[in-house]
């Protein structure tokens, strides 16, 4: 019997060291009870409904539940285990049911609707009006107007979807953890850099094995595919990576994908929408699937000629170099890296010594200081969930607290692949107090070894800047309501702050702040900076085509009726046909590990990466015109985009910053596609 539960106490910082796995379920169940009481007080009130006693009260209800679940689900991504995954499967349907209890509460909806119907007479400010609109739509778009029978159907669908999404993610993680490539012949390491071999040796040693072990974790997988000369071993790795969730075993995700897309469609139809994409995109900048498909098709027409030309050049190069008659997917990174070295005399391994992780962290902090007057001070007295996690107190130039920042950089068995930003405590203004947020970024960068610190590839540098851009969006939030704060914006706007910050990685003025050789302290030579900039558009056509293919697959699943869909692999091949360059690999299927759309929040939204690139290319042109550290432009970006979250329509905010709508040509020009195509 648990008597003391740290999660049910009042806390500011997440009490990670006190939390035991068995605390989560009882804490969440108790917090649901508390939240239900708060909801009942609002819905059963005998007072006439007002903005304050209904809409605002609803916004600030369930705060304890929000804190506890944010900790739980963040750990389920960054530091999970079988117990946590089991609890996630148990509580997700319960949480889904609770959310439906709110949305389908007729008395509560009637009160919200009563306020909504007189909104023009209430003298609300812009943020209040946005909150009212958002709360009303949360009900009207999610079943409040359904019949009792259809509300029951909706509850069943939502329960199933929450469980299926979790199961999908668990299977992908388990598949990644289950695979290892053990190499015992040193000749098979030919081409691999010394530090990659050293890391693989340490992994083998940690598992009491002789030799070198490579895994599907990005810091192991990517350099192997890029540098390993042994083509058969590259094939082995590529097949394993592409077969996650596609092996007709207990971890197979094919049926999960089928069920998810069909249930999403059923849900949309139940709510009166033509498709899941129609439902989702109604609350996005794009507004409808037609706009997204036109956007992707236009980009495809611009990128495809360039991509085909790049692919043909790569084929010729591989044939001339090694007599490769048919370029395969496991050849892509290997020959692209060799060709890049030949064309630009630029090697990722040549760059890595200039990008020691600690220096890059200090660099991104310095960029934030120069742009937004933020200071980051590492603090050691904050509870963390793993020894790898670092914590920083963030203050402004007046010494005022801005945020707490967590950073978790290295892969481990309990952490899913990729990189992401998340929130442990939202920014809000409550009782006249501006409560500052707790923000986290999670990445999977190469670990230090006995002899070498953590050195980043240039791609990892841009990843760090990308996630830090999201973090700035959270840290600099300055709104009244948490559901409109920070990254709580339209999904196709949320990538603007992250992607725009990546641009600083290519600018000499920024690189000179942090790119210094970890052994000699030498600042990165201008010659290398010039090469980085020159190579920045290398294979941009193929990279763009790849992103378009994922966006088209996403829309292929969600913008149509999937009722007749039975064969995931066949369907995926058809969706990829317009963007196909490499021969198909029958053993592989991308959909079964496409976590962005089947576990994350990107369903009907993967296009937003390219959409936001249009915004970020256009926005950065403004910085370039005035100077990349221009205080006036930075302040304007902070005040119109970063601090205002979702309090206004994204295009309104963007035009206030830029003075005009974004110009797609800025992206095409930056990517070099105008010239190539």
Question: What does this entry look like structurally?
Answer:
With 677 residues, the chain is α+β, with helices and mostly antiparallel strands. Among the domains are: 6-145, Up-down Bundle (Glutathione S-transferase Yfyf (Class Pi), Chain A, domain 2); 179-242, no CATH class; 345-520, Neurolysin, domain 3. It is built from 28 helices and nine strands. The protein has helices at residues 24-43, 51-59, 63-78, 82-103, 106-117, 126-140, 148-178, 194-206, 218-227, 231-242, 254-270, 276-281, 289-322, 332-344, 348-351, 357-372, 458-475, 495-502, 508-514, 526-535, 540-558, 568-576, 595-598, 608-626, 631-642, 650-658, 664-671, 673-676; strands at residues 181-183, 212-214, 375-379, 390-395, 401-408, 420-425, 428-430, 433-435, 438-442. The strands form three sheets. The protein has a five-stranded mixed sheet. It has a two-stranded antiparallel ribbon with strand order 1-2. It has a two-stranded antiparallel sheet with strand order 7-8. The longest helix is centred in the middle third of the chain and has 34 residues, at 289-322. The chain is globular, with a radius of gyration of 25 Å. Belongs to the peptidase M3 family. Its cofactor is Zn(2+).
């Amino acid at each position: 019997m648990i008597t003391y539960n740290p999660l049910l106490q009042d806390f500011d910082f997440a009490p990670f060291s006190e939390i035991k796995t068995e605390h989560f379920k009882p804490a969440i169940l108790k917090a649901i009870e508390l939240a239900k009481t708060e909801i009942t007080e609002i819905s059963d009130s005998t007072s006439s409904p007002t903005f304050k006693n209904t809409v605002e009260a609803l916004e600030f209800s369930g705060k304890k539940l929000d804190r506890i679940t944010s900790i739980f689900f963040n750990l389920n991504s960054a530091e999970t285990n079988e117990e946590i995954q089991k609890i996630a499967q148990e509580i997700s349907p319960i949480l889904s049911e609770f959310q439906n209890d709110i949305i389908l509460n007729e008395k509560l909806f009637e009160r919200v609707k009563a306020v909504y119907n007189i909104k023009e007479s209430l003298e609300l400010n812009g943020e209040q009006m946005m909150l009212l609109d958002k709360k009303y739509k949360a009900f009207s778009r999610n079943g409040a107007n359904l019949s009792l029978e259809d509300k029951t159907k909706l509850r069943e669908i939502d329960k199933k979807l929450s469980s299926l999404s979790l199961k999908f993610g668990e299977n992908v993680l388990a598949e990644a953890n289950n695979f290892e490539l053990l190499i015992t012949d040193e000749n098979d390491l030919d081409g691999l850099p010394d530090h990659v071999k050293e890391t693989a040796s340490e992994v083998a040693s940690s598992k009491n094995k002789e030799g070198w072990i490579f895994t599907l974790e990005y810091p192991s997988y990517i350099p192997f595919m890029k540098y390993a000369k042994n083509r058969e071993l590259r094939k082995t790795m590529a097949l394993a990576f592409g077969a996650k969730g596609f092996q007709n075993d207990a971890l197979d995700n094919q049926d999960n994908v089928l069920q998810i897309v069909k249930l999403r469609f059923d849900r949309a139809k139940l709510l009166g929408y033509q498709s899941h994409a129609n439902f989702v995109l109604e609350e996005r900048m794009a507004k409808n699937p037609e706009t997204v498909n036109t956007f992707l098709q236009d980009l495809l027409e611009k990128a495809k000629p360039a991509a085909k030309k790049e692919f043909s050049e790569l084929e010729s190069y591989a044939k001339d170099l090694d007599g490769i008659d048919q370029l395969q997917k496991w050849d892509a990174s290997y020959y692209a890296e060799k060709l890049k070295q030949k064309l630009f005399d630029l090697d990722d391994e040549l760059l890595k010594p200039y990008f020691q992780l600690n220096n890059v962290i200090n660099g991104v902090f310095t960029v934030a200081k120069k742009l937004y007057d933020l200071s980051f001070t590492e603090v050691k007295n904050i509870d963390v969930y793993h020894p790898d996690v670092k914590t920083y107190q963030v203050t402004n130039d007046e010494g005022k607290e801005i945020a707490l920042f967590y950073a978790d950089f290295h892969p481990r068995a309990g952490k899913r692949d990729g990189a992401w930003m998340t929130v442990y405590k939202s920014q809000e203004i409550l009782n006249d107090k501006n409560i500052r947020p707790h923000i986290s970024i999670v990445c999977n960068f190469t670990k230090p070894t006995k002899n070498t610190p953590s050195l980043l590839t240039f791609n990892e540098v841009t990843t760090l800047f990308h996630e830090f851009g999201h973090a700035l969006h959270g840290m600099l939030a300055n709104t009244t309501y948490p559901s409109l704060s920070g990254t709580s914006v339209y999904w196709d706007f949320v990538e603007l702050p992250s992607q725009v910050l990546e641009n600083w990685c290519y600018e000499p003025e920024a690189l000179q702040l942090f790119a210094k050789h970890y052994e000699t302290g030498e600042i990165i030579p201008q010659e290398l900076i010039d090469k980085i900039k020159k190579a920045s558009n290398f294979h941009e056509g193929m990279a763009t085509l790849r992103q378009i293919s994922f966006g088209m697959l996403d829309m292929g699943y969600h913008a149509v009726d999937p009722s007749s869909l039975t064969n995931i692999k066949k369907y995926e091949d058809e969706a990829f046909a317009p963007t196909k360059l490499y021969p198909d690999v029958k053993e592989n299927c991308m959909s079964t590990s496409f976590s962005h759309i089947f576990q994350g929040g990107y369903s009907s939204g993967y296009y937003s990466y390219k959409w936001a690139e249009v915004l970020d290319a256009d926005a950065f042109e403004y910085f370039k015109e005035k100077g990349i550290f221009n205080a006036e432009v930075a302040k304007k970006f902070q005040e119109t985009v970063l601090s205002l979250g979702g309090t206004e329509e994204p295009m309104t905010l963007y035009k206030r910053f830029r003075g005009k709508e974004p110009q797609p040509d800025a992206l095409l020009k930056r990517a070099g596609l105008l010239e190539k195509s």
